[in-house]
Amino acid sequence: MIELDRVGKRYPASQGGEGHDALKSVTLSIDSGEFAVITGHSGAGKSTLLKLIAGIELPTSGTVRVNDQDLAGSRRALPFIRRRIGLIFQDHKLLYDRTVFDNVQLPLDITGFPPREAARRVRAALDKVGLLSRERERPVTLSGGEQQRLCIARAIVHRPSLLLADEPTANLDMEYAQDIVEILRSFHQVGVTVVVSTHDLVSLRAAHPRVIALSHGMLARENAP
Amino acid sequence: MKAWFNQHRRALAVTAGRAARAPFAHLFQVLVIGVAILLPLLLHLAVQNLQRLGGTAQADARIALYLAPEATGKDADGIAARLKAHAQVAGYRFVSREEAIKDLRRIHDIADLVDALPKNPLPDAFIVRARSTDPGEIDALRREAAQWPKVALVQLDSTWAARLDAGLRLARALAAGLAALLAVALLAIAFNTIGLQVANRREEIEVCRLIGATHGFIRRPFLYAGTLQGAAGGLIACALAALCVIWVNRQLPGLAALYGTELVVQPMPLQDVLAVTGFAALLGWLGAWLAVSRHLWRDGPG
Ligand SMILES: Nc1ncnc2c1ncn2[C@@H]1O[C@H](COP(=O)(O)OP(=O)(O)OP(=O)(O)O)[C@@H](O)[C@H]1O
Ligand SMILES: [Mg+2]
Fold it and tell me: For the domain that residue B79 is a member of, what is the CATH number?
């Protein structure tokens, strides 16, 4: 499902200079239906790796293929590729001037979903993450863990086959983190491919994931589950 | 097809929602546009109406042929025959010297004065209506008639019509220039206001792109906003122009009585209203498109 072939990513330096290699020649593949965790120290390149898979960033060398499609070769197709992916961002990227309901509805709006069916799906997604009773509220009124669950609802409302989550358990108490992991696992169990990045392997251990470790932009070690 | 419809419906709803959340800001924006359009529009209306007035004035342009005092009835018949045969003459009327003096006496203030005259000083005359309204052709007719035998004087009372015509030409050029400037201004207004809206919604735009929105999806609500804003401005300008016409017509009867004619300023025809509104809407759309595109092109891939 996901294939990276000698992928390198260099961010341009802000003022002249060499730039910074966030990833160096990473080769790996993730199969359909896997639960993979990308770990590594801060700055190791975890977020960068997820962004490359989502087509938010393009590699400076090597190729990224998702569902046999080369992301760099199809810029016009990028929006449509992203629609088949559920994305959970490290910094949430919620719209704070919209209600919880509207935030979750956004991916369906983008695809031009009929409103009645969309509302039904939004409620189902909110129910899944336990936020159905808060649909009329604004995201600011939610706790950190609840906002994270809201991000999950938005990521899965359009039923993607691939779910990418960047640090979904960061800054959460053990208990809340466990909640999140449970929700991710439940999607994995119905066949969704899940790729998660984290510092915090402990709370994810229950999911028995495949662990991909990054260090300074390179693959460090890999443990199959 | 259905998805397309849903997306447009949603974009309209989003646009309406944004306007509803800041009604006064949007209202003033539209008013600014409306007033900007109003100025050249009024000039255009004035030109149109004066032109109509000028048209009737020129159609009425009369040429008076005064015969020499010694001219006989036979001479008059000869001139009548020439007029009848002339291609440029639409019609003519013979006014004998007796008739003329009777007319003069009718202005009763000077009736005594007329009676005191030893003999009728007025000549026989023909009042000729020209077929053409073109000042040049009328003048050619005047010069030709002046050469006819026993014609003492040919008078043309259309000089003011010619002046009006020149003035109208100037005003029309001015209106066109103003309209061109206005088009640039409207484009700038739309580019700026929609650009501000885009800047206010950077985050939303970014999130939408991240989760798979196409450029079209992101543009759509802004394009609706620009188009509707322009159209609303155009309609407001037309409404204000209509109010001006009503007001001017209220003031006119006094003026009209002075000239003994019936003066009414015609309102704008519906097709002009549609043209103005459509033009403003188009410029709003274009300004919005440029504003969003600038933002989209500045930011990274996809
Ligand atoms: N947009 C960018 N421009 C320049 N440098 C960047 C950019 N994004 C990331 N980097 C750099 O690339 C490196 C990898 O960043 P990345 O965000 O992938 O790390 P990470 O493993 O997700 O770290 P964290 O655990 O702190 O989230 C870092 O050194 C970072 O400074
Ligand atoms: Mg990160």
Answer: 3.30.70.3040
CB B126 within 8 A of CB B91: no
Q: Same domain, yes or no, for A146 and A60?
A: no
How close B189 comes to chain A (CA, Å)? 26
Check whether residue A105 and residue A1 sit in a common domain. no
Q: How far is the CA of B148 from the centre of ligand 2 (A)?
A: 103
Q: In terms of domains, do A75 and A181 share one?
A: yes
Nearest residue (by CA) to ligand 1, atom 11, is: A22
Across B235-242, average pLDDT: 92
Rounded to a whole number of angstroms, the distance from the CA of A95 to the nearest CA of chain B is: 6
Which of B156, B188, B218 delimits the end of a domain?
Answer: B156
What three-state secondary structure class fits B301? Answer: coil
Over residues B80-134, the pLDDT tens digits come to: 998 888 888 888 888 888 888 887 777 666 777 777 787 888 888 998 888 776 7
pTM for the complete prediction? Answer: 0.73
Half-sphere exposure of A215 (CA within 13 A, CB side): 4
Q: Are residues B129 and B89 in the same domain?
A: yes
Q: Residues B243, B247, B249, B253: what is their CA dihedral angle, to the nearest 10 degrees? A: 170
Work out which ligand 1 atom sits closest to the CA atom of A197.
22
For the Cβ of A15 lying below 6 angstroms from any atom of ligand 1, the answer is: no
**Alpha carbon of A183 to those of A13, A32, A125, A168, B115: distances in Å?**
38, 19, 11, 11, 117
The ipTM of this complex is 0.87
**Is any Cβ of chain B less than 8 angstroms from the Cβ of A140?**
no
Interface of A with B in 179-208 (CB under 8 A): none
Ligand showing the shortest atom-to-Cα distance for residue A46: 1
